[in-house]
Amino acid sequence: MDACGYTPTPISVFLSNVTTPVDSGHSSAETDRVESGACCRFRHFASAPRESFVDIIVAQIGDHHGFLPTRGTFMLDFVFLAMIAIIPVMVWSIYLVRYQRRYELHKRVQVSLALVLLVAVVLFEVDVRFFTDWETLAVASPYFEPDAWCTVWYALVVHLVFAVPTPFIWAFVITQALRRFPRPAAPSAYSRQHIFRARVAAAGMVMTAVTGWVFYWLAFVA
Ligand code: HEM
C-alpha cells in the first residue's frame, strides 16, 4: 500500500514495468516528493514515457490515479465530470424544445446524451467491478469506516436509489419517443405522455448527478 492508501494491482504492476523513467518536468523539490512516495498523484507522470497522450491516459487508468486532485480513479473522475457536463446540456435541450420548438435538435441531443451515458456507465461498471476497490481509496475520508455502515455508505445507497433506475427510465423514454413521435420529431398525440415521462427521466438524471457528487466528495475528497 502506498502513501495514498493505494494497493498495486496486477495491471498497475504490469504498466509500471513497461514504462521507463524519464525527466518528469517537476522541480527538484517535487521530484524528491515523488521519489519518496509522498506524492503518488504525480508518480505516473514521473515514470510514464512522454511520447503519447494515450500512453498517459492508459497509465492513469491502470495506475488507479485519476486526473483530478482527489483520491478518485480515472473512471471515477471521468464519471464525476460527465455528470457535471450532462446537466447543462440536458437543460439546454429542454429549453430548445420548450421555448424554440426545435424538436428535431432536441431529439438528437437527447439521443446523443443517452449514448454518451451508456458508454460512461458501461466503462464505469467494468472499472468498479473488476479493477477498482473504491473502499481502499475512501479509507482516508473521515466519513468512511471500513466494514461498517457509515456516512459514505449511506450516501452511496441514496445515490444508487436514483442511479440504478434512471438509465432504464431513459431507455424507455427514448425508445417510446422514437417509436411514437413523427419523423422529423414534432408534437403529436403522444406529447402529453412524453412530457410527463421525460420530466421523470430528467429529474432522475439530476438526482443521480447530485447524489453522485455528494458520494464522490464524501469518499474521495473529504
Ligand atoms: C430521455 C430523453 C428525453 C428527455 C429527458 C426529454 C425531455 C423532454 C421534456 C422535459 C419535454 C417537455 C418540455 C416542456 O416542458 O415543454 C420534451 C418535449 C418533447 N420531446 Fe423530449 N426528451 C427526451 C427524448 C426525446 C426524443 C428521443 C424525442 C424524439 C423522438 C423527443 C421529442 C420531444 C418532442 C416532440 C417534445 C415536444 C412535445 C410537445 O410540446 O408537444 N424527446 N422532452
Terminal residue distance: 20 Å
Ligands present: protoporphyrin IX containing FE
- If you average the pLDDT, what whole number results? 80
Number of strands: 0
What does the model show?
This protein has 222 residues and is mostly helical. It folds into two domains: 10-63, no CATH class; 74-221. It is built from ten helices and no strands. The chain has helices spanning 10-18, 28-36, 43-47, 53-63, 74-99, 103-131, 134-138, 151-163, 165-180, 191-221. Helix 6 runs antiparallel to helix 9, helix 8 (151-163) runs antiparallel to helix 10 and helix 9 runs antiparallel to helix 10 (191-221). The longest helix is centred in the last third of the chain and has 31 residues, at 191-221. The model is unreliable at 3-48 (pLDDT under 50). The structure holds protoporphyrin IX containing FE (HEM). Residues 94, 97-98, 103, 106-107, 110-111, 170, 173-174, 177-178, 181, 185-187, 191, 194-195, 198-199, 201-202 line the site of protoporphyrin IX containing FE (HEM).
Topology:
Layout: H1 10-18, H2 28-36, H3 43-47, H4 53-63, H5 74-99, H6 103-131, H7 134-138, H8 151-163, H9 165-180, H10 191-221
Helix pairs in contact: 5-6, 5-10, 6-9, 8-10, 9-10
The chain binds protoporphyrin IX containing FE.
